[in-house]
Amino acid sequence: MIEKIKEHIAQVEAFNTTNPDEIEQFRIKYLGQKGLLKDFFAEFKNVPNEQKKEFGQTINTLKSKAQDKVNTLKEALENTEETKGVYGDLSRPGEPFQLGSRHPISIVKNKIVNIFSRIGFNVSEGPEIEDDWHNFTALNLPEYHPARDMQDTFFIQTNPDVLLRTHTSSVQVRYMENNKPPIRTISPGRVYRNEAISARSHCFFHQVEGLYVDKGVSFADLKQTLQYFTTELFGKSKIRLRPSYFPFTEPSAEVDVYWGLETETDYKMTKGTGWLEIMGCGMVDPNVLENCGIDSSEYSGFAFGMGIDRIALLLHQIPDIRMLSENDIRFLEQFKSAD
Ligand code: PHE
């Protein structure tokens, strides 16, 4: 009997193939449920005591040799080019996919655009390098108007007619010049003011302008629209309108949203009042409509303008506005999962 097992050991050692079916047959023959090894182990009890030790060692050798053979043949098979094919081993884990991230300004801008597009506003854009007419004069800010001082303008070279726009209201003018009412448009974009740079303000920032012109547009429409907007963006519907002044709207207002006073940050951001100023707005001044070729006896409209940067700081708890323009990858990467 022992001799027979030794013959098998020799056969196992000599066995070689690159055919997966033959390897499987080999495995079943020796190691399968009804394989030879099972039979030999069953023989064990019939073996005379003095031979038991040698017999046991020999079948164990056969077993480990058969097992090793199956393993090495299978491994060799996996490494051959034919089984790898063009794509290699398809069951291997993939390369990690590097996700990009959106800039927080874009995230907030997209949210705002989305909210207004749901109530029929389209998106319009204008140039960042503007002329005096579109940034000031058409908006009821003639030369020497004191309100021009409020917006510390960057002029390009020495020509006072070429400047960096100080607000996106210039796009209102361009849009009204080129489109007939009904008008419902929002205009996001970058604006520039010659202001000292600090944690709270920068010499360039971003605004979204809104403009609605049609027959019979009223202040009530403006308020409803703003309330819808703050509810959608902040989840807060309590707003208040404080009388204010802009040369291009009459009447004009500043919009505050009730943010609440739950956390310390709320106290800081709202200076302890719970109210947060988010935008300027008003009814488009009839002069502005006329300047853009729209009959003010037939049409009326409202406009609003808000800063995106401060809203982004607020929504993402960013402590310093300068972080938005430093392009520090450690900062930007943190917005990977944001929408
Ligand atoms: N353009 C104004 C600003 O930059 C905001 C505003 C826009 C106010 C439209 C009223 C209407 O402060």
Automatic annotation (TrEMBL):
<comment type="subunit">
    <text>Tetramer of two alpha and two beta subunits.</text>
</comment>
<dbReference type="InterPro" id="IPR022911">
    <property type="entry name" value="Phe_tRNA_ligase_alpha1_bac"/>
</dbReference>
<dbReference type="GO" id="GO:0006432">
    <property type="term" value="P:phenylalanyl-tRNA aminoacylation"/>
</dbReference>
<dbReference type="GO" id="GO:0004826">
    <property type="term" value="F:phenylalanine-tRNA ligase activity"/>
</dbReference>
<keyword id="KW-0963">Cytoplasm</keyword>
<dbReference type="GO" id="GO:0005524">
    <property type="term" value="F:ATP binding"/>
</dbReference>
<dbReference type="InterPro" id="IPR045864">
    <property type="entry name" value="aa-tRNA-synth_II/BPL/LPL"/>
</dbReference>
<keyword id="KW-0067">ATP-binding</keyword>
<dbReference type="InterPro" id="IPR002319">
    <property type="entry name" value="Phenylalanyl-tRNA_Synthase"/>
</dbReference>
<dbReference type="Pfam" id="PF01409">
    <property type="entry name" value="tRNA-synt_2d"/>
</dbReference>
<protein>
    <recommendedName>
        <fullName>Phenylalanine--tRNA ligase alpha subunit</fullName>
        <ecNumber>6.1.1.20</ecNumber>
    </recommendedName>
</protein>
<feature type="domain" description="Aminoacyl-transfer RNA synthetases class-II family profile">
    <location>
        <begin position="108"/>
        <end position="325"/>
    </location>
</feature>
<dbReference type="GO" id="GO:0000287">
    <property type="term" value="F:magnesium ion binding"/>
</dbReference>
<comment type="similarity">
    <text>Belongs to the class-II aminoacyl-tRNA synthetase family. Phe-tRNA synthetase alpha subunit type 1 subfamily.</text>
</comment>
<dbReference type="Pfam" id="PF02912">
    <property type="entry name" value="Phe_tRNA-synt_N"/>
</dbReference>
<dbReference type="InterPro" id="IPR004188">
    <property type="entry name" value="Phe-tRNA_ligase_II_N"/>
</dbReference>
<dbReference type="GO" id="GO:0000049">
    <property type="term" value="F:tRNA binding"/>
</dbReference>
<dbReference type="GO" id="GO:0005737">
    <property type="term" value="C:cytoplasm"/>
</dbReference>
<dbReference type="InterPro" id="IPR004529">
    <property type="entry name" value="Phe-tRNA-synth_IIc_asu"/>
</dbReference>
<dbReference type="InterPro" id="IPR010978">
    <property type="entry name" value="tRNA-bd_arm"/>
</dbReference>
<dbReference type="InterPro" id="IPR006195">
    <property type="entry name" value="aa-tRNA-synth_II"/>
</dbReference>
<keyword id="KW-0648">Protein biosynthesis</keyword>
<keyword id="KW-0460">Magnesium</keyword>
<feature type="binding site">
    <location>
        <position position="250"/>
    </location>
    <ligand>
        <name>Mg(2+)</name>
    </ligand>
</feature>
<keyword id="KW-0547">Nucleotide-binding</keyword>
<keyword id="KW-0479">Metal-binding</keyword>
<keyword id="KW-0436">Ligase</keyword>
<keyword id="KW-0030">Aminoacyl-tRNA synthetase</keyword>
